[in-house]
Specification:
Elements: H1 5-16, H2 27-35, E1 49-57, E2 60-68, E3 75-81, H3 95-105, E4 108-112, H4 124-139, E5 145-155, H5 157-171, E6 179-183, H6 194-198, H7 207-217, E7 243-250, H8 254-266, E8 271-280, H9 293-315
């Protein structure tokens, strides 16, 4: 199908405004530009309770925000990792998506943060992300959550971290992860995928920007094959939690996301893989500008409700 009309209009407006591609920005400019995504979102929904906390991480305390929806008692927990190329993004830009996620799913959402590159390079982000999982498993019950049913979720670089945390939890005999939701995830620093050339420019996230992000996040190229940087390159994907892998048509990362879904499926992991045609990277943060952003949220909600219901039966 062709490009979504609202996406097309948005891309034309951004181009007309003179917005530079991410790789042409300074780190400060990039972080500021990512915060402007709040202007593309619906007004934030009310949730029953929002709590700001500090999570102990390996490099110090990390801010996190907990969204408890109405009526949540022993509700599943979603640990959510924001995107931003490991160099940007924060709790502000994902506040609206996390509120909507909590209300649609009826689950407790723990929006986590992590140390950003280039000030903090790999493996700071995954270690911080794993610390958030440990904290949720130990403390989620205080906020209406069921610590036996935890999902990890993220978009873009956050999708990478969610996939990595699922691997870490398995490898380290950590908290059981019941589901993983990977929204247009980064999965492989080394691949030569057709979508990297087909969608190299003009669709918000450029292939050159991904090189920029990797160069800041994992400056030592020899470390990029580490599975906690490139989860697709893990030697074994068996025993990982059921996954919902979302890709979008006009995205340099499309093919590596789909390759990861295939890798999981080949290892016997239950996988739901869905490509949303006509859309671009970042659309999950565009609920007010692109109506079809709601399709991603609806798909995520359906998957999580079904998977967590199955998890509840397994624990009964």
């Amino acid at each position: 199908m062709g490009m979504d009309a609202q996406v097309k209009g948005l891309l034309e407006a951004l181009a007309g405004s003179g917005l530079k591609s991410f790789e042409q920005m300074s780190i400060a400019e990039l972080r500021g530009a990512m915060e402007t995504f709040t202007g593309l979102q619906k007004p934030p929904e009310e949730v029953a309770k929002v709590t700001d906390v500090k999570i102990p991480g390996p490099g110090g305390e990390l801010p996190a925000r907990i969204y408890t929806p109405k009526g949540a008692t022993s509700a599943p927990i979603i640990v959510y990792y924001h995107g931003g190329g490991w160099v940007g993004g924060n709790l502000v830009v994902v506040d609206e998506p996390c509120r909507a996620l909590a209300n649609r799913t009826g689950m407790v959402v723990v929006a986590a943060t992590y140390r950003l590159a280039p000030e903090h390079t790999f493996p700071a982000a995954p270690e911080d992300a794993y610390a958030a999982l440990l904290w949720a498993a130990a403390n989620g019950g205080k906020y209406g959550g069921d610590t036996k049913r935890i999902a990890v979720m993220g978009d873009s670089a956050g999708g990478n971290l969610a996939a990595v945390v699922a691997l870490m939890a398995r490898d380290r005999s950590g908290p059981k992860v019941s589901a993983q939701v990977l929204t247009y995830p980064v999965t492989d620093a080394t691949g030569k995928y057709p979508s990297l050339s087909e969608n190299a420019e003009g669709y918000l996230l450029h292939t050159a920007a991904m090189k920029f992000f990797w160069d800041h996040y994992v400056p030592d190229a020899s470390q990029r094959t580490n599975p906690y940087a490139s989860p697709l390159l893990a030697s074994n994907h068996k025993g990982l939690p059921p996954a919902f892998v979302i890709t979008v048509e006009y995205d340099p990362l499309r093919d590596e996301g789909e390759a990861y879904a295939a890798k999981l499926k080949a290892a016997g992991v239950p996988v739901t893989a869905q490509r949303y045609n006509g859309l671009v990277h970042g659309v999950y943060w565009m609920s007010g500008a692109v109506a079809r952003s709601d399709e991603l949220l609806a798909g995520i909600t359906k998957f999580l409700k079904s998977t967590m219901a199955e998890s509840a039966q397994a624990h009964a």
